[in-house]
Known about the structure:
4 helices, single chain
Amino acid sequence: MKHFYDFNVVTITGEDQSMAMYKDKVLLIVNVASECGFTPQYDGLEKLYETYQRQGFEILAFPCNQFGGQEPGTPKQIQNFCKVNFGVTFPLFAKIDVNGEHTHPLYVYLKEKAPGIIGTEAIKWNFTKFLIDKKGRVITRYGSSTKPEKIAQDIEKLLRK
Length: 161
């Protein structure tokens, strides 16, 4: 697979979904967890989503249990947690691996296109974020500590292009 839009993922409710449905949109892809110190970032992510969705912006959240077992729940539990505690309305997907032998192919691609600090590809923790432009190009990677509101300016620039 050579392009972002060639990948398929599974929604949190179990449906197959092509990334091609997000053509011409600016995307923020995030590996998330319910029991992480960065979990309050759901608030900031939801604010970004509410602010920019009508302009062609989507957040795609991929639960991951690889960092300290901080996403142990079932799909239903994860969905309920996000809705009840943070009012999340952006798409959630099935739990995946972002590192190691069973890394989801989408994350293999994202890490190749936007390596981390000093060229490392591994995701270091929950709430690592990838910004994708309207043509499906991976623009940049943000670490876990980058708060969603700090990304707003970059999103706005891509939405104007």
